[in-house]
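Help! Submission page says 'invalid entity' but I think these are all valid:
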Amino acid sequence: MIQATDLTRSFKTKAGLVEAVRGLSLQVEEGELVAFLGPNGAGKSTSVRMLTTLLPITSGSATVGGFDVARDPVGVRRTIGYVGQGTGSGPYHRVRDELVTQGRAYRMGDAEARRRADELLGVLELEGLADRNCATLSGGQKRRLDIALGLMHTPKILFLDEPSTGLDPHSRANLWEHVIKLRRQTGMTIFLTTHYLDEADTMAERVMIMDHGKMIADDVPEKLKADLAGDQVSLGLVSESDAITAAESAMNLPTVRDVTQTDRRLTFTIQNGETLMPEFIRQLHQKGLEVATANVVRPTLDDVFLSLTGRSLRESSLAVQKTEQVAHIERYTSEVSS
Amino acid sequence: MNFVQDTLVSFRREIGPTLRSWYYILFGIIQPLLYLGLFVPLLTSVPMGGEGHPLQWFVPGMIVMLVLFTTVSCGWALTEELMSGSFERFLATPMSRPAMLIGRALKELAPLLAQALIVIGLAAPFGLVLHPVTMLFGLLLLLVFGVGVAALSYALAIASKHDGGLFYMVSHSVALPLMLLGGVLLPMDMAPGWLYTASRFNPLTYLVEAERALFLGELYSATVLNGVIVAFLVAGVGLLVGAMTIRRATL
């Protein structure tokens, strides 16, 4: 459904040429739910804006739904739904009017657009708001309306650019319920960008991690975590000498990394820590070593990002945001919401 | 066909909130009355160029001025939608870009058309001689011209990104000299030689002269033809620049 080869985009700024996306290649199959994860300024939005024909590509090529983004942008636009970072609805327009206008923009007939608008108002729980001005909606309601707008023409592919940024936890959860439900009903391909780790982790079936305009990882979250981060295991022994002996045994475990022993505490990183742990403790017991405490911490996608880049996603979000805002390269959520 | 439909869709979306606000409509009706009531009494005591009643000379100039200033600043309304993301929402649809611009421009021009008709109707009993066919033709010509100026204004709004101050400065520093040099409010025949020469390089001058001719009932003349050429030239260039700016925009 989505295919990109060596996509690049550079911007001219006062500070010189900035390469926002540097050689992005990706493939998304029909019906997949894929998340672009990365700090602000990693090039996620720029990539999505190129795939949705909103931004001309500097070099490379991409097809979306079988249409070339550069040669047949109208074909792409007909196939996709796009929910941008900002608020799609106009503040002085009424909710239902905006939906009908959107349908008409996709060349739907008037009656068809009205029928579909009413249907989506129901699906996204906006019924009571149909005749209200969009400016009077809450943040969560506006976002649900944005999604309804993106779905008016029943697209095969839906792009969601930072769909839940700026929403409170309750509205975020509610928004996701709707997206998941819609996907189950329609089976459409969903491509989203997010800088929320937990969102990518729980919602996406496949995560592509972007950093500095490049894709640095692309896999199912579970596999990324197992391969690139591993479980953090921490054991408490009864004496320091026991801990030293246990550390020697731990060295022989498959896939083990970063074995450290301080005082009576032994820590290491390992894949499938939860299943290996009971067996390892039994082994230690047979050698006459007593384990007093045991703890396994499952990795997060932040650990994955940390192991790939040496930086935490949370910290780099802030740092990159600051520098790139100065450069005025892209439009950022912080600017929109401020 | 799609082009016409897209234009209508865009127009209908934009005009909706205007038609729903009674104070906008009320102000829209009062505004031309102010021009007529507060300015025209002065005219009768000043010697104007051209033939006929001073109103015959003043009304078309005033309408050109209204069109110019409204369309020059209509990019301002787009700035808000550029920042919020609702313009981007339309760019992601298959809608024709020039049609989007024309629909938006017509939304600004429709109330002006209504105002112009009110002014003409009210000025008639005070001495404006009506030439319905040529006057309507003149108004249509202004719509064409207005679409072009509006498209340029939208292009400027997109190019100046989110800097509203820059947009205001540039748009007004272009519109003001154009208007003054176009002889919109005072006849250029009264100007010193250098100013008169400068005015001949201003495309607006020819449009204003064509409008005055049309308001006097003239149709088949070089003056009118020049105005038609200027109006369509501005519309063509405006839409071309507008569509190109949208395509290249990084937003």
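Support: the input was valid. A stray whitespace character was the problem, and the output above is from the cleaned input. Residues 311-337 of chain A form one domain.
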